[in-house]
Amino acid sequence: MSVSNLLPREGLPTEDDLPYSEPRIMESERHVLQLDLLKDPLLLAWADRDDWYVAVDMFLHYSLEQVRNRDFLGPDFFVAVDAVRRERKSWVVWQEGKAPDVVIELLSESTADRDKNEKKELYQNRVQVPEYFWYDPFAPKDLAGWRLEQGVYTAILADAGGRLFSAALGLGLGCWEGKYQGVEAVWLRWSWPDGTLLPTPEEAAARATREASAAAARAEAETTRAEAATARAEAEALGRTEAERRAEAEAAQRRELERRLAELEAQLKRRSAGG
To answer: Which position has the higher pLDDT, 218 or 201?
Structure first.
């Protein structure tokens, strides 16, 4: 495709005019899963919001010079806030009116040097991405974050829990050791400001199942307690009925004895009067 074919007849090119795919560079399974683990919990956590956009391995077009030089850039992962949530072929800075707010590059032996130097300088000076992070899925200690302050990246310091805080997203990024999609490893994960991890869809489903089971158990226990209370009330009612029956029987016996005594006394009086 020639440069002239990249440009529309009128105005600046849009995502419909610019390249949006290329032969994919093969990544390890760990890299692919890590990108899913960054994307899916965010999609779930912000499912009710329509003012943001997340992308994985998408072209980022930031200047016409870049387009003319065919120097295409495809961040591993990026998030933009205050953006219309819609399908895109690529992210075109002049079309969107802004750069992504957060970019994350996953390091590998072949890309680490470029990600830490050339791309960092590019994101700082040319694209002006507010926050840039890099992470090595096979060397978890190689996690770093940078925030653009007065045009220069300043290192984001980790908190006491080792997390880096993204002011742009209001979320933390930190390492978590566990099993994801059957792979036991140290993973990079989002967390809320209080340190609670954003759950994966599988974790959310499992939690919902546990909560439903717990709710069912509580309901069953409450039903059992109610049945026990009803049984006690019925037993008490039966006890009262039996006691009342015995009391009535005893009262009837007393009345019968009193009647017989009255009859005997009356007979004695008559005999005494006749003698």
So the answer is: 201
Judge whether 118 lies within some domain.
yes
Count of Cβ atoms closer than 10 Å to residue 161 Cβ:
10
Report the distance separating Cα 254 and Cα 76, nearest Å: 98
Report if residue 88 sits inside a domain. yes
90's CB contacts (< 8 A; 6+ apart) are 15, 18, 19, 20, 58, 59, 60, 61
Domain count, the chain: 1
Residue 42 placed within a domain: yes
State which amino acid sits at residue 192. Answer: W
Distance CA 163, CA 188 (A): 10
Q: Give SS3 for 3.
A: helix
Burial of 255 (0-12, 13-18, 19+ CB in 10 A): exposed
Asked if 131 and 168 count as a contact pair (C-beta separation under 8 A), the reply is yes
Q: What is the pLDDT of residue 22?
A: 64
Query: 144 is in which domain, residue-wise?
Result: 3-197
Global pTM exceeds 0.90: no
Collapsed DSSP state (helix, strand, coil) of residue 146: strand
Q: Is residue 205 part of a domain?
A: no
Q: Where are the alpha helices (DSSP H) in the chain?
A: 3-6, 29-45, 64-68, 93-96, 112-116, 118-122, 201-274
Instruction: Please state, in angstroms and rounded to a whole number, the distance separating the CA atoms of residues 103 and 48.
Output: 22
pLDDT at 155 over 50: yes
Q: What DSSP state is assigned to residue 182?
A: T
The sign one gets for the Cα dihedral 51, 53, 168, 34 is: positive
> Domain containing 178 — which CATH number?
3.90.1570.20
